[in-house]
Write a structure and sequence with these properties.
about 180 residues; alpha+beta; Alpha-Beta Plaits; 4-stranded antiparallel β-sheet; 3-stranded antiparallel β-sheet; about 15% helix; elongated
């Protein structure tokens, strides 16, 4: 059987002169989308060490301090009205298909309200005002229908309609007042 040669593989630190204060510069290699970064440093004992990092998704980002940024925040773009108007729609909603239903009993639940308005058409939002402490109905609700005709039919039928021993009042919802 042949003898196994005892060969010692030297490390990079053995090949660099120990008396030299200079460390090799950092290196970057990109191979098939894998970025390998090697950084050389000294540890607390003054021994030379190297750190190898493998980054799978390589993204290049050049930051130059001399050039101004081309990014403009949405509130500073043309047509914006200032802070808070990021997309131009904040605070604006279409209440033209919303109705206010009042004189509801305290025992009214959202399920009851859904059953009451479902025959008039599709709605996008239903809000039943409730007391924070008791959870009981405060006596009114807002329903946002998808179509104005559905909302008009609901008002025509529900205004003056008897429901849960009370006479309901239905009307078009008034636009929300903007507070500044």
């Amino acid at each position: 059987m042949p003898a196994i040669e005892d060969t010692k593989i030297s490390s990079w630190a053995d090949e660099v002169d120990e008396t030299s204060e200079d460390l090799p510069p950092p290196s970057e290699v990109i191979d098939n989308g894998l970025k390998i970064v090697t950084v050389y440093r000294r540890n607390e004992d003054g021994k030379k060490r190297h750190l190898i990092s493998n980054l799978h998704s390589v993204m290049f980002c050049n930051l130059v301090a001399d050039k101004p940024s081309k990014y403009i925040p949405p509130y500073m773009r043309d047509g914006a009205k200032g802070r808070g108007d990021a997309m131009g729609h904040r605070g604006q909603r279409d209440d033209s298909c919303a109705i206010r239903l009042s004189n509801l009993s305290e025992s009214t639940q959202e399920v009851d309200l859904e059953e009451l308005v479902r025959p008039f058409g599709d709605y996008s939002k239903l809000f039943l005002a409730k007391d924070k402490n008791t959870g009981a109905c405060k006596g009114f609700a807002y329903i946002h229908f998808k179509h104005k005709l559905s909302a008009a039919n609901a008002i025509a039928f529900l205004d003056g309609h008897g429901y849960d021993h009370l006479i309901l009042a239905a009307e078009w919802s008034k636009p929300q007042v903007q507070q500044h």
